[in-house]
Specification:
Helix content: under 10%
Radius of gyration: 22 Å
Number of strands: 23
Structural class: mainly beta
Mean pLDDT: 84
Low-confidence stretches: 5-11, 28-37
Number of helices: 2
Length: 336
Amino acid sequence: MSSNIPLGGPVSYQCVVSNFVGLATNTWWLTVVPAPVTSYPHTALALNPIGFWPMNEAEQGGGDDGVAAVDYVGGNNGIYTNVLLGQMSYDALTDPSASSALFGNVAAANSCAFGILGPDFSLPNGSNAEFSVSAWVNSTGNNGLNTPTIAAKGYYYQEEYALDAGTGDCYRFTVRNAAGAAYNASSALSLTNSGQWYHLAGVCNEAIGVVQLYTNGTLVSSVAIPTASGITNSSETPMTFGSRSSTPSAGFNQQFPGYIANVTIFNYALNSSQVRTLYQAGISLLPSGLTFTNLSNYATRLTWNYGILQMATNIAVPFSDVTNAGPSYLMPFTEP
């Protein structure tokens, strides 16, 4: 094997084997991509995932059919179809050179990265499964299709795991054990909250009997799953991003409408500190140029150069944009 393979590609290689009967030649193509250096990918790779798809491939036009969705860790590449690549970053300050893939725009369905052969977490009853799935997502709204899917392994009702949206189009993480029972950790955050990036992390930890969902670094749902109950076997069904099939003949009909970046899979259960570290690596913790000015009426004015002010009643619920707040917001003085 050559030691000076150039970045980019693909590059053609051949292996020739001969004996007294004759010659046999096999040709394959190899693409070498540079290691990511931006904040979030660097942090994600430091946590030793078994699969990492940044989805940062360049736009090539025509729905980018046939372009590879490269797995930087496990080599389980997928194939894009009906997707727009080279889209906006999940955070223009933290990772300005990053990009994402837009699904459900070129086509209302069958817009995905498909044919991803692993990872597979199927286990028989009596075994404990531990794994995690995370991604950055930004929906473009509710498209009315059933179970919009971000990342899934297996057909609907036969999935090993799925990061998708369930009741009310709210983000959730689903795990199905070896007996075929589904365990759903669901959030209150709906796809109708469009135009905003969210970091999702689903965690399965059968050793302690929980399935969990984190949004923006915060645990929002934890449901019990029987310990040592294994994971249903969908090993013959490739994983997909952006959409999945409800049946073997339905096509990719469970379409997510929006942007996806940095799908990452771990063969262990992330803890709350690791999830928070992942989320914080992909955000600007403070808007650029944030200043506080105390006014004579005891109020405070916030000003900033970049970012959208958001508020919530507490950190466990979705934050919403403050209207008419940028790039300045007056915080009124309230008597204690």
